[in-house]
Design brief:
This protein is mostly helical. The chain contains 5 helices and no strands. Helix 2 packs parallel to helix 4, helix 2 crosses helix 5 and helix 3 packs antiparallel against helix 4. The chain is elongated.
């Protein structure tokens, strides 16, 4: 026997439907509640990297006591280039496999594990992409600053200081 009042199937009969229903009393669910809004778009990491390099430059050179040291600037630029070429590339290569995980078995636990692992890999790849864009933009801005100093382009230096102060 099944149906309301005829055995343990009563709850099953109430939930086995596709038509919209009010939430059960005392369930903690609010009738008519809207879904959560979508998450905001990711930040523009390239713009953040440029802005940070400009702000760092503006801060360092604001008091007039700072002196440009081409050798030190070249070392920082070389270090960032090496990092992008070596560590970032290696991490991206390893990360390329992290969202291709297949479930070890054909059952719910294995499939759930694979979904979670692949989602984690995709998130890591998104992080690396943002870090790459940020670091590349930071590096390109440092190169512009170095070029402006080497060429003694005072207008470019003043513009970079002003942009950095606004960030």
């Amino acid at each position: 026997m099944t149906g309301p009042g005829r055995g343990p199937q009563g709850v099953y009969d109430q939930l086995n439907t596709t038509s919209p229903q009010a939430p059960p009393p005392n369930s903690g669910l609010i009738q008519g509640a809207a879904a959560a809004p979508p998450p905001p778009p990711p930040p523009n990491y390239g713009e953040l990297g440029r802005g940070q390099a400009q702000a760092d430059f503006a801060s360092a050179s604001a008091n007039g006591g700072w002196e440009f040291n081409r050798e030190a600037m070249d070392k920082v630029i070389k270090s960032l280039e090496d990092s992008l070429e070596n560590e970032f590339r290696e991490a991206q290569t390893h990360a390329s496999w992290l969202n291709q995980i297949k479930p070890p078995g054909d059952e719910v636990g294995s499939q759930g594990y694979a979904v979670a692992a692949n989602n984690s890999g995709t998130s890591y790849q998104a992080f690396l992409d943002g870090a790459w864009k940020y670091t590349t933009a930071y590096l390109e801005t440092l190169k512009k600053i170095r070029t402006a100093y080497v060429e003694q382009d005072q207008a470019a230096l003043d513009a970079l200081r002003q942009i950095g102060k606004a960030v």
